[in-house]
Design brief:
CATH architecture of the largest domain: Alpha-Beta Barrel
Distance between the termini: 48 Å
Strand order of the largest sheet: 2-6-15-16-17
Number of helices: 12
Helix content: 25-40%
Order of helices and strands: HEEEEEEEHHEHEEHEHEHEHEHHHHEEE
Number of domains: 2
CATH topology of the largest domain: TIM Barrel
Bound molecules: zinc ion
Length: 429
């Protein structure tokens, strides 16, 4: 009695879905992994899934013709901070931010998430937030309370006392409560294991560690290493034991090298990586997330007269002088480059500027497109579900005007965004 009923229900659902076929047509298509575009482009969607790529649209499908455009898998960003905003990194901005409530930051983060989605990014990693805003935002988006990308949350970046991920760095002792592993600050291998466990307990999908100094913290050298080899080994081992990837913020070479030897999954920034370290990354398959957008945004802001703390300016110039050359060498050597921007340092919703910076620094446009689609999907551990336009995958599809291989800046003019079959943007209606 039971099984025929189930069968009938399934058949009815399948029939209803077939009736709701949507065929997206455009002049060209990039599937996320091929070495060229195909023309013309066609993707057929049923519900939240892709059911056909290429060929003729089924007679029953509703056809949306996007014209002289290119269909692509939606973009991903391996490095964002949806709850941070660029203006908070100036001395004036820091003091204004101290008066804001968590609710206000959360509402701002929701707006940042919406901008990110409409710019064509439907999956991002949030590599460090405060007050669990990233976890709350991720869950609210999943529940449909607000529109935004899928978020893989880190909860907090982990680091050592006085390091880049110690939120009290730069303030006089006693001014703020001294943080411990639950707040992301650890000082031994065992404490790093405890910190990873706390982050996972709090909802972390990915673990982030600050392996070296950073640009926007107040009192450490940008390239100093901040964890011992034993601490990094413990952190990566515990992350992997919990089924989480681990990402290391690392500008300096020594800190990055230790993280790579520990088995870290990605190096974020990598401004001062030496030849041997890039070779080690290639050998080990460690992903490089260069976040060119972040330093470019800081330098652009300085040109426009943004007043930053002189300590931050000096560190930004030092890293900025080095990162493009390091990135170029990484591309030449064939290190796998994943796409990430550090959005929050630059403006949210401008994530696609990273493409033009990558191409300016010598990366072939097709490789830049792969980095934000299939390469990121693999790094995030979600390649079975999304990251390419293939039958059976989630219907995560964007369209950009013209041919992005001829003009990579067309990625900054996304005009159509579909996430899991739902159209969030279509400017060519
Ligand atoms: Zn960082
Ligand atoms: Zn960051």
């Amino acid at each position: 009695m039971k099984w025929p009923g189930v069968f009938l229900l399934c058949s009815a659902a399948a029939f209803a879905q077939q009736e709701n076929l949507v065929a997206l047509k455009a002049a060209r298509l990039f599937d996320g992994k091929a070495s060229s575009l195909t023309a013309p482009g066609l993707v057929v969607v049923s519900g939240s899934r892709i059911v056909q790529v290429g060929g003729m649209p089924p007679a029953s499908a509703k056809v949306i013709d996007l014209g002289d455009a290119t269909l692509l898998p939606v973009f991903m960003d391996a490095h964002t901070h949806l709850s941070f905003n660029a203006q908070e990194f100036t001395p004036a901005g820091r003091s204004i931010a101290q008066g804001r409530t968590t609710a206000e930051f959360t509402l701002q983060a929701a707006e940042n998430a919406r901008k990110t989605l409409l710019a064509g990014f439907t999956t991002v990693r949030d590599l460090g937030a405060s007050d669990y805003i990233d976890v709350g935002l991720r869950n609210a988006i999943q529940r449909g309370l607000t529109a935004g990308p899928r978020i893989l949350s880190a909860v907090r970046g982990l680091g050592t006392a006085g390091g880049h991920c110690d939120p009290t760095t730069g303030y006089r002792p006693g001014f703020l409560p001294e943080p411990g592993p639950q707040q992301g600050v650890a000082n031994s291998p065992d404490e790093f294991r405890a910190a990873v466990r706390y982050m996972v307990k709090a909802g972390a999908d990915v673990i982030k560690v600050c392996a070296t100094g950073g640009v926007l913290s107040l009192n450490n050298d940008v390239d100093s290493s901040q964890l011992t080899q034993a601490e990094l080994n413990a952190l990566v081992d515990e992350s992997h034991a919990k089924g989480r990837k681990a990402a290391a913020h690392a500008h300096g070479d020594e800190g990055a090298r230790r993280a790579i030897l520990a088995g870290i999954d990605s190096i974020e920034h990598g401004s001062f990586l030496k030849e041997e370290t890039l070779d080690l990354m290639k050998q080990r398959g460690t992903r490089f997330v260069p976040t060119l957008h972040a330093l470019d945004s800081i330098m652009e802001g300085l040109k426009q007269g943004v007043q930053m703390d002189p300590r931050n300016v000096a560190k930004a110039r030092k890293a900025g002088d080095s990162v493009m050359a390091t990135f170029r060498r990484a591309v030449e050597k064939g290190v796998v480059i994943a796409f990430g921007t550090d959005a929050g340092v630059g403006a949210h919703g401008t994530n696609a500027r990273e493409f033009r910076l990558m191409v300016q620094a010598g990366m072939p446009p097709i490789q830049a497109l792969k980095s934000a689609t299939s390469v990121d999907a693999e790094l995030f551990g979600i390649a079975a579900e999304t990251g390419t336009l293939e039958s059976g995958k989630l219907a995560d599809i964007v369209a950009v005007p013209g041919d992005p291989l001829a003009d990579i800046t067309s990625t900054e003019r996304v005009f159509f965004v579909m996430k899991e079959g739902v159209i969030h943007r279509n400017d060519r209606k």
